[in-house]
């Protein structure tokens, strides 16, 4: 009987030990699983999530109206010409337009290319005058001269081109360039064109300063004018100016001395 109690007590002790061992093992496995979950690499982030995070980290941006296609000189701005882009505040120094409604209906003072930001300096409102008057730069004048197929460079003159004006005196073979790099505002009654094909014109309107306008009219009254088409990227070479100076020298004749001014 005593042996039976001993075996029973030993069995219960072994079972309790096994139970405690199983509980301890389960606890350790649970802790290890939690630790692995914390140290496990995060799942791959999609490209959209990356862009969203980058946008959230970026500086504040401001909208700017830009040209989504080429806009020729004198063209009336329409909504189809425009698009909106957002730029960081620090990068956009000039004050541009923020909405297309601010631009629609205005005229392009100069040719605007795709991707250019629209600024006030490059646009004019129709209310400032006729289309041509609105395109004239400040303090400049528009002067029209009559041309033929020869003077007009065989019809290759288009609004926005630059020319030199050559004066040929009547009954003389002398030719003098009286004006250089003059902008053409219009040919005949057209201030803009979407076609680069040559067109024979009868009149060309030039943009001149008041002094240049006087020189052109004077030259026209004394002889014949010829237009010379030029590359707008040509760099004008400045003429060297030589100035004469005077100096005094001393002339000695016996006991007499005199000073004479001499030009050098």
From TrEMBL:
Query: Do you know which Pfam families this protein is assigned to?
Result: RcpC, SAF
Q: Which SMART domains match?
A: SAF
The residues that cross the membrane are 6-28
Domain annotation SAF: ranges: 62-124
Q: Which InterPro entries match?
A: Pilus_assmbl_Flp-typ_CpaB (IPR017592), RcpC_dom (IPR031571), SAF (IPR013974)
Cited Gene3D superfamilies? Antifreeze-like/N-acetylneuraminic acid synthase C-terminal domain (3.90.1210.10)
Domain of life from the UniProt record: Bacteria
Instruction: Name the UniProt key words of this record, in alphabetical order.
Output: Membrane, Transmembrane, Transmembrane helix
What is the protein named? Hypothetical Flp pilus assembly protein
Organism annotation: Photobacterium profundum (strain SS9)
- Species lineage: Bacteria, Pseudomonadati, Pseudomonadota, Gammaproteobacteria, Vibrionales
Q: Which gene encodes it?
A: VV2661
